[in-house]
Amino acid sequence: xxxxxxxxxxxxxxxxxxxxxxxxxxxxxxxxxxxxxxxxxxxxxxxxxxxxxxxxxxxxxxxxxxxxxxxxxxxxxxxxxxxxxxxxxxxx
Length: 92
Known about the structure:
Elements: H1 2-25, H2 40-53, H3 60-75
Helix pairs in contact: 2-3
């Protein structure tokens, strides 16, 4: 009876260990799909501050427009040919 119990303990330990390893190694960075429109202002302000620190003055409004265009570009389905992507529609 003790030998069977030890096998169950080994099996449970392996499963728990694999789960903990997955949690530790899981990707925790934000991805483009995780960002919402409410994050847009913060992202634009951060981009503006970083670019200003590097010597390129970009207003938060321009940075926000660039982020919106980037999201629109990512939403475009890839075309069959490797040519230029279609121009986005009017600003949102």
